[in-house]
Design a protein that fits this description.
The complex is a heterodimer of chains A (440) and B (250). Chain A is α+β, with helices and mostly antiparallel strands. Chain A has a domain of 114 residues: Uridine Diphospho-n-acetylenolpyruvylglucosamine Reductase, domain 3 (2-Layer Sandwich). Chain A has 13 helices and 21 strands. In chain A, the strands form 5 sheets. Chain A has an 8-stranded antiparallel sheet. A 5-stranded antiparallel sheet of chain A has the order 5-6-10-8-9. In chain A, strands 1-2-4-3 form a 4-stranded mixed sheet, covered by helices on one side. In chain A, a hairpin with an 8-residue loop joins strand 1 and strand 2. In chain A, helix 9 packs antiparallel against helix 10. Chain A is globular. Chain B has one domain: Rossmann fold, CATH 3.40.50.720. In chain B, 48% of the residues lie in helices and 13% in strands. In chain B, helix 1 runs parallel beside helix 2, helix 1 packs across helix 7 and helix 3 packs across helix 5. The N and C termini of chain B lie far apart (49 Å). The chains are: A alpha+beta (440), B alpha/beta (250). The interface between A and B is medium-sized, with 19 and 18 residues.
């Protein structure tokens, strides 16, 4: 199990850098794997499934500790809904265990292919942020191994500062060995959902205000539409159904993109055609029931969808603007993006709630978040991001580190007021491309 | 019908763990044999949560059981009670070809770990299942056993010998209700292969291999190449004329 060389990319496929990796299979192998990586490479970073988009999960030329084989359940109490599992267990695997017993993860991102360790380290959010907050708020306890050999169990009521640094701590405070979370009870695996068109961005804000009682709310936007149709899109809301079977989705093969095509398939023309069709399709207005899997994880059915962006990869840009500036700033950003003609079909708009942040570097805050994919077209794309950065900074917003590959250090430092405090909890042997780039 | 009763020899192997998970979700009764009791306990806790009806974890060195193979087998088999449905032999050691070439004792060690001890367990298991008149024996060999190659012929010879033994066992038990499956995985991303360069499209996950084994057992197959594309690849490698083969660094 000694460290070996491996080329590793993140989900955005922007870089394919060499790493030294070690993948311990059992708990007793963790200390040696960590020590060897640190001795050989001088630094290490935990790596789960690599679903973050930018460089938060990369440590190019240095060490990665792969958690994929640390994927065992430790305890699950079907009465209280408390699950303790190793950090490499994925949300998808957890759901396969807990859904048949009537429990669902408290918060889920838009893919089930993330590990619990990654969900904690990026303090992920989901469609229920406006009511529930982030994933980190449901962590009861976790075990953190530091490079000095210590293992600390921390939680909201024990070693609270170290805990708050580790939630959303980007893997830089040590290795999360296991996580214990509170699940939410469900009566059915189905979701009662509605989807509705809105003809412009004002419609989004109105529907959001009308939907605060719905636990799950998210919108898709056609980011190429301009003028009176600026920010038209589809509003989706859902809640766990009261009746129905408790079946986790089968791990079906699904479709996939087998190889990266030589040129990206996401072009202005293909995006325009897709957006028009997606907005106009009859299913865009729908009231009914669906299984939770297509509701939460529509893209999980297309394996390796990131390959559609071709060999140059893609960026994701996710911002949040506070409530005071959200409307004005979102409109300004959408105008800027529509005029550039660069974005892709994958655009998400959502209002966050005002739940207190679980971690020192947690991304979500009260306001409106906009997330978009952009094929990597080099300087043209970076110039657009610079323009968007201006708007975000002027509006008092910030960007999501798990999605980022290019923001400047000042923007990160300005957006995260608890950064200095966070730094006192850094593990000196843990490092990442993002940490170096943003001078964390 | 009562739950499937399974003995896994070498239960801490990556492929064995994935196979055990598949069976645990169906509520199987599992007997996991391996060397490291602490690791077996980690696996057992997980499998119990996943739904296994019972998980027992006797620990022993499978390549040299203290009481001899027959006595060790009898005591293992008695722990599961009346009926035994599946025996999966999953342990093995890749070793280092260089070390085996330099040291005859290492060659013997690899032959014992991958073939000699395995054949002993398979003999005991086959007799047990034949008497019982029911069950499946599966053993994990390797595509490396299909032709001797300079890069790993000691490991290859052991796995090839195991495959030949299994072929004979399949022949012997052909007229009985007992099924025998020889599994020949290709490149699998497990701790055993962590020293190899794993970039490239030929690598499979242990979960994929385990799912293939599960299907092959259900269908009563005799030889499984997994993933499937290794069957044509190995056919070509076996058929290469020696003149050509000797020019390749395989």
């Amino acid at each position: 199990m000694s460290p070996h060389a491996k080329t590793v990319a993140s989900w955005g496929n922007l870089s394919h850098g060499g790493h030294m990796v070690a993948a311990p299979s059992f708990h007793d192998e963790i200390p040696m794997a960590l020590n060897e990586l640190i001795a050989q490479c001088r630094s290490v970073l935990p790596y789960g499934l690599g679903r973050s988009y930018g460089d938060v999960c990369l440590n190019t030329g240095k060490g990665l500790l792969l958690t994929e084989r640390l994927d065992r359940f430790l305890t699950f109490d079907a009465t209280s809904g408390i699950l303790r599992a190793e950090a490499g267990v994925t949300i998808g695997e957890a759901l396969r265990l807990t859904v048949p017993k009537g429990w669902f993860v408290p918060v889920t991102p838009g893919t089930k292919f993330v590990t619990l360790g990654g969900a904690v380290a990026n303090d992920v959010h989901g469609k229920n942020h406006h009511l529930a907050g982030t994933f980190g708020r449901f962590v009861r306890k976790l075990a953190l191994r530091r490079s000095d050999g210590s293992v600390t169990e921390c939680g909201p009521d024990r070693e609270r500062d170290l805990f708050r640094a580790t939630i959303g701590g980007l893997g830089l405070t040590g290795l999360i060995e296991w996580v214990e979370i509170d699940l939410q009870p469900i009566a059915s695996a189905e979701i009662e959902m509605q989807s509705l068109r809105f003809a412009g961005v004002e419609g989004f804000f109105e529907m959001s205000a009308d939907s605060v009682s719905w636990p799950y709310v998210v919108s898709w936007i056609d980011c190429l539409s301009q003028g009176s149709a600026l920010g038209r899109g589809i509003f989706m809301r859902g809640r766990h159904a009261e009746t129905g079977a408790l079946v986790a989705a089968r791990a079906k093969g699904g479709l996939g993109i087998p190889v990266t095509p030589p040129v990206g398939l996401v072009t202005p023309l293909s995006v325009r055609l897709f957006n028009e069709a997606y907005y106009r399709r009859p299913g865009a207005t729908f009231t009914g029931r669906t299984h939770f899997d297509p509701f939460f994880y529509p893209l999980d059915r297309l394996h390796h969808w990131n390959r559609a962006y071709g060999p140059r990869g893609f960026y994701q840009y996710q911002s949040v603007l506070p409530p005071e500036t959200a409307r004005r700033g979102t409109i300004e950003m959408l105008k800027c993006i529509a005029a550039s003609g660069q974005a892709s079909c994958l655009v998400v708009l959502k209002n966050f709630g005002d739940a207190p942040a679980a971690g020192m570097l947690s991304f979500p805050m009260a306001g409106t978040t906009l997330a978009l994919d952009f094929p990597n077209r080099g300087n043209r794309t970076l110039a657009l991001f610079a323009a968007l950065d201006d708007i975000v900074v002027r509006c008092g917003g910030r960007l999501y580190a798990a999605k980022d590959a290019r923001m400047v250090p000042a923007m990160f430092h300005g957006g995260y007021p608890e950064l200095d405090r966070f730094r006192t909890f850094l593990d000196p042997a843990f490092d990442s491309d993002l940490k170096r780039r943003l001078s964390i | 019908m009562s739950r499937t009763a399974i003995i896994i020899l070498g239960a801490t192997s990556a492929i064995a763990q994935q196979y055990a998970r598949l069976q645990a979700e169906r509520g199987a009764r599992l007997l996991l044999v391996g060397r490291d009791s602490e690791r077996l306990a980690e696996i057992a806790a997980d499998l119990t949560l996943r739904g296994a009806e019972t998980v027992e974890i006797p620990d022993m060195d499978l390549t040299a059981p203290t009481d001899g193979y027959q006595a060790a087998w009898t005591s293992l088999a008695s722990r599961l009670g009346e009926r035994l449905d599946i025996v999966l032999l999953a342990y093995g050691a890749l070793g280092h070809q260089d070390a085996a070439e330099a040291d005859p004792a290492e060659t013997v060690r690899l032959l014992n770990a991958n073939m000699v001890s395995a054949c002993a367990w398979l003999t005991a298991a086959a007799n047990h299942l034949e008497r019982q008149g029911h069950g499946t024996i599966a053993a994990i060999a390797s595509v490396a056993g299909d032709r001797g190659r300079r890069s790993n012929y000691v490991y290859g010879a052991a796995k090839g010998g195991l495959a030949l033994f299994m072929e004979g066992l399949t022949h012997r038990l052909a007229g009985t209700p007992v099924r025998v499956l020889t599994v020949k995985p290709g490149l699998v991303d497990t701790p055993m292969t962590d020293d190899m360069n794993k970039n490239g499209p030929l690598w499979a996950t242990p979960a994929k291999v385990a799912a293939d084994i599960d299907k092959a057992i259900a269908r009563g197959r005799t030889v499984l190449y997994t993933p499937w594309f290794w069957r044509p690849i190995m056919l070509v490698i076996r058929c290469l004329p020696r003149v050509l083969f000797h020019r390749l660094r395989l």
